[in-house]
Each structure stands twice: as C-alpha cells, then as structure tokens.
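Teaching assistant's notes for section 4

Start the section by putting this record on the projector. Ask students to predict, before seeing the second block, whether M23 family metallopeptidase will look compact or extended. Collect guesses on the board.
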Amino acid sequence: MTHLHSSNPIAPGMLGWLFQGTNPWLKQQVKTKTAPVLGLTVSVLLALANSVQALQVQVKPENPQLGDTLSVVISTDASNSATPTVISPDGPVPAFPIGGNRYRAMIPTTPLTQAGRWEIRVEGEGETRNIAVWVSDREFPTQSIWLPPGKDDIEGTDLEFDRVDEFKKLVTPEKFWNGAFLRPNDGPITTIYGVRRYYNGVFADDYYHRGVDYAGPEGSPVMAPAAGRIALVGRESEGFEIHGNVVGIDHGQGLTSLYLHLSRIDVKEGDMVQAGQVIGAVGTTGASTGPHLHWGLYVHGQSIDPVPWRYEGVE
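Reveal the predicted structure now:
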C-alpha cells in the first residue's frame, strides 16, 4: 500500500472516511497508533476529529429588530468554569448561570439604538467568540398627546426620578421569572411600545413610549405578569407627579417592570409576587389623560418591547 505524503491536500470528506469503521486498513493503524496517515499520527487525527470548541454561543432571536431583547446563551465544557464575559456594542453585560454548564446574558435594543451589524464578543474557557448579529430597523408611529390644564406643565420631582432610576439599575443574581409573561390587564391596548410623541404640539426629542398602555376601566385589576420581588412603591401624594401611583417589580438578573397611574396599590416593598397575582388597580394618577395602565419592561435600565416576552419569553 502506498502511503500519502503530508504535502498532498486532504480532500473534503476524506477525514470522515478515514474514521469510518468499515476501513480495515485504518483499524490496523489504530491498533499501533504509530503509523503515519496523511503525514500525521492516528492519535493526532483522533484528537482533531473528537475536538469540540469549549465555548458555544447562541443568540436569539435569529432576526432581531429594534426593541427586541437579545438573549446570548453560552455553553461551556466544564461545570466549574468561570462565568464568561460578554461585551455588547455598548459595553459589558453580565452573564448568569442557567444550569447545565450554560450561562445567559441579555442585551437590550431600543428605538434609539443604531440598527445594522452588531458584534458581540464572548470570552471564556480561554477562548473568544465574535458573533455578528444584524439588528433590523423598525418604523415607529407618531402620536399627539394633549394634557389637560394642571397636567400640561408637570416636570416631575427629583424624588421620583431618583427612586425610579435606582430601581431600573437593579441586577439581582436570582432569576425569578419563568417562561412567557402574562398580560397585566384585560383592557384593550391603546398605545404600543416605541411610539414617538408630540406633547401639546411640541415634539419630545429623544423620547419614545417606554411600554404598552392598556385602557382598562378605573379600578380594574393589574396583575404581575411574572414572578418577582416588589422593589418600588411610589405614590402621587409622595411626589410621584409623572408616574402617579406606581409599582416596580424586580424579576431578577437585570429585568425589571413598572406599572404606572394606579388608583390603588395592593403590595408593599419586599413582597414576593407570583405571575397573575393582583398588585393594584387601573387609575389615572400622575401624567395621565384618562384611566389606563402603563406597563414598562426594562433590561439593564433600557426600555424594551414587552410584547415578545408575552409570546416567547427569554430562557
């Protein structure tokens, strides 16, 4: 038999043929593990054939658009490996273990985000993966809002802005939610996520509607769409002039949600709530033109579209 020299190219598919059990010549070589095959020892070829990258990365959704949450799932070989590092175009984002030698990081996109090619870098197990993701642009409608006298000049208070900003920065290591989110109110949707607005005829620069509005009747129940911890309770009487009576739920790992303009609050800070539990009632407190619930969902402080979370959720 004539042995091939290392200078000869390896034809596509030849490596797989060499390792098929029907090749008696290869079986003989495996017994010795010393005979050259294509200029390499069989032991080296076996290592090459069985080698698997220690770091596997999957990004969902496959075809994201502005407003979507990018879920970066990382799989490693070792159960005791260090938590991988994830770098988005806007900087580092935390990754958390989700079981089975897997980790997940969430990257928010918004109507103010630059669409196009994104590169996400993942480092771990001594390896680096550079993942290219194309984030599609998305058209958002424009709406005119006319606030009634007494509410048309509301600027908000330092107290409410400081409390809400602090709430949005929460990154609790525990994951409280599980699966797709429930609808927080049964009323019809009147304003979708991402709408740009004119307030009393003046366009609001760098503004977009940070949530979904449900026109439920005054006093209709507001439910927690997913499990979490009540981390914010604010009242109009305490200075929450824009948010009105508001509840904030920490769902864990950088995911938070806000419920604005409530007429009634049924929970207190520190309470643990489950999906479907009533947390308050629809009202028109704060900067509101009529009874409705404003539901906002945030990833690492950025307002993302809640709708995909209702139908698919994030693992």
